[in-house]
Design goal:
single chain; 68 residues; mainly alpha; Helix Hairpins; 3 helices; 0% strand; Ribosomal_uL29_sf; Large ribosomal subunit protein uL29
Length: 68
């Protein structure tokens, strides 16, 4: 997921994406602990996607605050 793709989404879409990513991260953590996850790099990718979504949300909120 690229930041440029995220910037085209609405705040509601970003927040739902964030919830989805947190759920996925939760499930991946359990799979790692249970030794069921073979591709552990997926956990890192999800963590970085969460950071990207949070960054874009912060940018949108700062833009809205400066416009007022």
């Amino acid at each position: 997921m690229k930041a440029s793709e995220l910037r085209n989404k609405t705040v509601f879409e970003l927040e739902t994406e964030l919830v989805s990513l947190h759920r996925e991260q939760f499930n991946l953590r359990f799979q790692v602990k249970a030794k069921q996850l073979s591709k552990t790099d997926r956990l890192r990718k999800v963590r970085r996607d969460i950071a990207r979504v949070n960054t874009v949300l912060t940018e949108i909120k700062q833009r809205a605050a400066s416009a007022q």
